[in-house]
Structures are given as C-alpha cells and as structure tokens.
Amino acid sequence: MTQEVAVSAKQPPGSVHSLPNQKKRWRADRIYTNLSYLLMILPGAIWLFLFAYLPMPGIVMAFKDYRLSRPPADSLIQNRFIYSLIESPWVGLDNFRYLILPTNVENTIMYVRNTVLYNLLFIVVGLVLAVALAVIINELTNQFLAKLYHSILFLPYFISWIVVAYVVYAMGSSAGIINSININLGLPPIEVYKEQIYWPFIFLLANIWKYTGNGSIIYLATIASIPRELYEAAAVDGAGKWQQFKAITLPHLMPVIVLLQILAIGRILGSDFDMFYTLPNGAALVKDVTYTLDVFVYSMLKSSTPLGYPAAAAFLQSLFGFFLILITNFIVRRTRPDLALF
Fold it and tell me: Where are the domains positioned within the chain?
C-alpha cells in the first residue's frame, strides 16, 4: 500500500487522467499516418463486406424449405426475403441429400470432377507461366519495353468474358473463321460446340490469356525486391541464369508461391463462372466437360428447383474449401513452418 502511494506521489498531477487522451491521440496519429493505405483497402473491404459477410445469414437457407411469401400486414418484418427466411420450415439435411440422390449423384460427381480437374490444371500451368513471365520481364534491360510488355499482357484481365465468348463463337462456330478456312482447304469442319474434346484446351488457353499477366504482378514485385548484389556475386562465381534462378530467385519466391497456392487450393471447388457459362454458349452436347459446380448452382437457381438445393451446394463448396485451406496449411506447417499461412 505504501509503495502504491509512493508511486502515485511521483506522478505529475493529471497524468493518470491524461492517459486515455494520449491513447486517443496516438490512435488518431496512426490513422492519419496510414490514411493512404486505409483508403487503398477501403474498396476491397466494402466489396468483401457486401458480397462475403452480408449474405452470411442466408446460409440457413441450406437447412430450410425456403419459399418466398408475402408477410402479413401486422408483421414487424415487411421484407419478403427476410420474412420468408425466418418463417420457412427447417428441413435438416434434406437439401444436402438431394445432391446425392440416385438420380443426381452421377451429375454431382461429374460437376465436382470438372471443377477440381480444371482448377488443378489452371493452378499448375498458371503458376509456371506467371513465374516464367515475371522472370523474363525482370531480365529485360530496357525498362520501357518491360513496362510495355507487361501492360500488354495485363490488359486481357480487364476484357469481359462476353467479348471472349463472341470471339470463340466467331472462330469456332459452323460458319466461323476456322471452318471457312477448312472448307477452302478441303478439310473436314470442326464442330466446336458439338465435340467435347476441344473444350479443355479452349478453357486452358482462355485462362492463360486472361490471368497470366495479372498473376505475374506479385512475382515480379517480389523479384524486383531481391538485392541485385546476390545476382552479381553469383555471376562472378560463374553461375548461369538457370543456376541463379534456382539458388536466388526461387527461394525468395517460395513464400509468395506457397501462400498463393494455399489460397488457390481453398478455391478448388469454385470456378470462374463467367468463363464456364459464357464460352460454351449453352451448348448441350458439351455439357459433360463444360459444367462446373458454379454453373450447376446457377442452373438450379434458374429452374423451379427449391432455393435450398443450390444453397446447400454453395454451402458445401465453402465448407470444403475452408477445410482444404486448413489441411494444406497444416501440411506446409509440418514440412516448412516458415512458409505456413498461420
């Protein structure tokens, strides 16, 4: 007790009461100092809130027989969606059982197979090409050409899939450019919208064309941050470009590569809906290789299927993605703890 009195006696008057004010000023100073960074992440934070967190209460739709109904006049809730979400009866796991019914299980397996295999293909090929592009651009000595090439390769990211779908149709339809050339050369026509064999290559080429330039940005920034002295010392020791890549560039890229691949594996049950929906143009004959889980969910939303079924499918996508991130990160943490996400 005497020590507390002695300590309080040494403090200047009003210092205890000024601590909250000092903390407030310290927080205000931090906000002001980092204001530009906060403004940069604001659009992404708003998007995340509107499209990721705000719809979360709708998860309960996967466990209900959701039917849109009009609320009575004396109800406190007049919004039709919220009222129906609250008042719809619970059905437990019935909506999930719909996905594995004997009449549906074959299609469900096919959609999961397409989604996973396409994503694995995109992850592997996209990683190799994005890293290779970043290394090549970084090796260019002419900075103007380096920026020009990267801008040209980055531009497809902003082009709508609708435009790409028109290009694919103009090239591959029965009256398209490719078949016109084949007819003039006496070759048989190519039925792109009737034969399944072409679509894995079309999707892969479209994915590479659109996302490789964008995917190389992070790798290029990481390579640019590597001290040039390391490369100069390696060159003096007689190391070639390939040896420099293996000994210097790749180890510096590994943390970024592992982080991005963990996140990519978490999205392996999702797909680029715009690409898979627009490019095939609804061709029924190639459905077995063009339908993914996201297209399947959208097709259920368009039909008279109860909304609980697509909600259950979307919930399973998110749930399995979450567990895949945990499992992948656990494996990385056991093998390379310094590269783990958490």
Answer: 110-339
Residue (of 77, 97, 73, 74) closest to 87 by Cα position: 77
Q: Cβ neighbours of residue 216 under 8 Å, at least 6 residues apart? A: 129, 130, 131, 133, 134, 137, 150, 153
Within 8 A by CB and 6+ apart from 183, the residues are: 189
Beta carbons of 112 and 124 less than 8 angstroms apart = no
Instruction: Report the alpha-carbon distance of residue 221 to residue 253 in Å, rounded.
Output: 10
Fold that domain 110-339 belongs to in CATH: MetI-like fold (1.10.3720)
Task: State the Cα–Cα distance between residues 292 and 158, nearest whole angstrom.
Answer: 23
CA distance 230 to 236: 10
Q: Which amino acid is at 14?
A: G
Helical H runs in the chain? 2-10, 15-33, 35-48, 80-87, 94-99, 105-139, 143-154, 161-172, 177-185, 199-224, 228-236, 241-244, 250-266, 273-278, 287-290, 293-302, 308-335
Look-up of token digits 């008057």: 13
Helices (H), 228-290: 228-236, 241-244, 250-266, 273-278, 287-290
Q: Whole-model pTM?
A: 0.84
pLDDT in tens, the chain (342 residues): 444 444 444 455 544 455 566 666 777 778 888 888 889 999 999 999 999 898 888 899 999 998 888 888 888 888 888 888 888 999 999 999 988 888 889 989 999 999 999 999 999 999 999 999 999 999 888 888 888 888 898 899 999 999 999 999 999 888 889 999 998 998 998 989 999 999 999 999 999 999 999 999 999 999 999 999 999 999 999 999 999 999 999 999 999 999 999 999 999 999 999 999 999 988 989 999 999 999 999 998 888 888 899 999 999 999 999 999 999 999 999 998 888 888
